[in-house]
Amino acid sequence: MPSKPLYLISKRKTGAHDNFANKYINKIIKWRKSILAFVQDIWGLQPQPAIHKYKYIIDACIKNNEFFNISASYFGNFNEDTGCWYWEGYDPSQYSWAGEWIHKNNLITWQQWGILLSIEFLCTHESKRRLSIRSGHGIGKSSVFSWIILWGLVCFHESQIACSAPTGSQLYDNLWKEISVWYNRMPDYHKQNIVISSDHIRMKSNPKSWFARARTGDKENPDALAGLHSMSKLLFLADEASGIPTEIFTVSEGALTTENYLYVMASNPRRQSGYYYESFGKDIRWYNLHFDSRESPLVTKRWIDDFRLKYGEDSNEWRFMVEGKFPKEDTVDTKGYYQLVSEKMYEDSLLKDIGEIDWTENVRLGIDPSGSGKDETVWCLRDEFHSKTVLKEKVSTPKGIASRTVGIIKKYKVKSGATDTNVFIDNFGIGADVRPELILLGHHSIGINVGDGADEKDRFLNKRAEAYYRQMKWLKNGGKIAKTESSDDILVVRCTEEGKKFRIMSKKDMRKEGYKSPNDADARMLTFVKKETKADAKRGIVRNREVAKHKTKISKINKMFMTAKIGV
């Protein structure tokens, strides 16, 4: 049996003892069904006018719940010569800019309207109750979040709302300040039932269980979006969600056990990884919207021109701050770290046809051991051209790791002599006990302390940084990875420079930032600790040339065959 719409499930006794609810019960029921009606009745706001000839298209988008297809061109005309939008109903001679027209005429922009329409749809949808928005700067997200929060508090008895952003400035100086602006514009009868403090907004009739809460979403506060329990309505709002660690969102999933929740994320899309990034495509539970700053009446042409002059249209900053697009590569975070391997580099490195790999005699084996913790023990093979994770194990012992390693050595003919071995083991923790077990079985390995000094001490902080840099260069030069369910974990590896030295974010810091341990990438990294000889490099160049010649030959044969076939 299908579940009831959200507003019906939440329609419990909205305070039979509460004069506020009794007096406005009919309006509250209407507002529960329509946040647009709430915004219109409380503040007198109306959507900006659309061009008449496009109204039927807009109506079709609304009817089909395709709000993402509503376009700026339905509300105005863009002049290529001036680089300006001329919005329907806007007279440039009467206002200094379009934003002034919006504010003085109590209008909401077409982009804000699209968000509110999506909220109404999600509140009655059977499966999706999650909205993720990516946009450029200045489209009015904070105002929309303020409307959602006040709507949730006024319309749903004992609702609980969790609000989060990466920093206190984004949360308190921006969002909480914007809420105060709209709170002050509410009718007095509603205002007297609401109390705003530095980190809470409470309803007077039941302040302990009817509230909105603000907590920064950083590594020190993993419960920022957790701890809510309400039979009426739960709201989760994440502003600048791209900067909030994944673990905070993961913890919040535990509260989504009822049908009475709504989850909204919005951000400039700064990162190519994390919970927010995956909400666009990988996680199909989310309804998506995308807005460009250049198409917002609230953003001035001067700001666009200044930003273009400073960063250029080919920059990542332009992509996520103006176009609302994810960067080509992950941008530098507040601590100076950025993504080691871009999404494109990774995609280009994947083996298209994963058959039996023809390993060379120089195949290396990297082993990243783990005992009984959260991580897995990983065995990864690599030669000059290919890499593949061949085995993973959740719970391991030194003897068990040694035994499985011997099996891989024999199967893939990996060198493991006392003076000539291509077996590399992380020497930290349980790894230090594996090497003696291997020797007892007649095989030798090299124990790697990744924190030791690099070969090129002036360039790299330690062996780990140096080996990861070599791995990145290998991928860039054509190295291939056999795709597995976790082969993309290299995308979470972050790097920076300390002084003039290249370094990789430590595993401890990665956990704090919400990144999963890149076990596959770590095992592969170990195979790069020992620098390849010139002979190995030359062999790789020759092999790549041979492969290229072979592909050209096959292509010519296929072309000749198709020509002959057409001739017949």
Keywords:
single chain, 568 residues, alpha/beta, Rossmann fold, Nucleotidyltransferase, domain 5, 3 domains, eight-stranded mixed beta sheet, six-stranded mixed beta sheet, 21 helices, disordered N terminus, disordered C terminus
Structure description:
Helix content is 38%, strand content 17%. With 568 residues, the protein is of the alpha/beta class. It has 21 helices and 21 strands. The radius of gyration is 29 Å and the shape is elongated. It has three domains: 6-323, Rossmann fold (3-Layer(aba) Sandwich), CATH 3.40.50.300; 347-532, Nucleotidyltransferase, domain 5, CATH 3.30.420.240; 534-568. The strands form five sheets. Strands 7-8-9-6-10-11-5-12 form an eight-stranded mixed sheet.
**Cα separation of the termini:** 62 Å
Q: Indicate the proportion of strand residues.
A: 15-25%
Helix content, binned percent = 25-40%
Under CATH, the topology of the largest domain can be stated as Rossmann fold
The counted number of beta strands is 21
Unreliably modeled segments = 1-17, 561-568
Within the largest sheet, what's the order of strands?
7-8-9-6-10-11-5-12
Kindly report the average pLDDT value: 85
Identify the CATH homologous superfamily of the largest domain.
P-loop containing nucleotide triphosphate hydrolases
Instruction: Indicate how many domains the architecture comprises.
Output: 3
Q: Strand pairing plus helix content: what structural class?
A: alpha/beta
Q: Count of helical segments?
A: 21
Structural shape: elongated
The level 1 CATH classification of the largest domain is Alpha Beta
